[in-house]
Amino acid sequence: MLMxxxxxxxxxxxxxxxxxxxxxxxxxxxxxxxxxxxxTEAVVAAITDRRLRVLPRPRGxxxxxxxxxxxxxxxxxxxxxDADDIMTxxxxxxxxxxxxxxxxxxxxxTDYELFGSMSGRVRMPRTPAACxxxxxxxxxxxxxxxxxxxxxxxxxxxxxxxxxAYAEDYRLFTxxxxxxxxxxxxxxxxxYRVGEVQVSAVRQVEQRAVTLRIMRENLAAHGISTxxxxxxxxxxxxxxxxxAAALSYLYGEAPRLVGVAGRAAGxxxxxxxxxxxxxxxxxxxxxxxxxxxxEQPVGADDAR
Length: 304
Hints:
single chain; disordered C terminus; Glyco_trans_2-like; Glycosyltransferase 2-like domain-containing protein; glycosyltransferase activity
């Protein structure tokens, strides 16, 4: 289990506790402290469990911390969780059992539940085909819910890439998909804290730019290279609110999105695009105070 942390003293004890209380006990929790300047070090040091290992390092950012964790990890599987989230008790047991039954799956995640400033369940794509279609337009696995075959990362030379910072997980799962299947279990394995300090809230411009870059690369790999970044951004994000904005999107960008997805991934692509369109319309028609964060990785495809 890999948990990078930077200044999460208020939350990390609960996060660590949820890992150590897993029904699956044969684990090591590797906490990579990326130069925290608050009480994080003291909070972690007060937890006495032989399965907890701390890797302190100078401040280098999330990408460097994650790669340090990959290098230091032991075992066959690498599970992920952030230092402000909470695991449900049987998440690891379910994921390990799933991977044992499906050697062709190189990573899997779960649905997750929002808490903090928002609430609700986010349903992720289930099958490998649905995940491949979802990767055209965003990550198909919630990063903090993932469990990955460590030997695949190492044998294929896959890691988190600094040139894709702010969407490094999206790029990682894109690379993993070239070496095996991705999937998600249909249950809530993670409680995901929503606050104002997340990358999606404070680095939206940078995150969108990197996300668009990955989308265009993924579409090009499926033979779609004629969609420019501005057009794709209009298809994917609908920041305006109200019925007029929803109608404009429905009759303008939505058909283009469905067409692009269908050409790239067939029926699974169409289903992915239709679900994304529905989410965007729902967001536009809800009061702003009730709408999900713009970059929240909501959305999934069919479970068949």
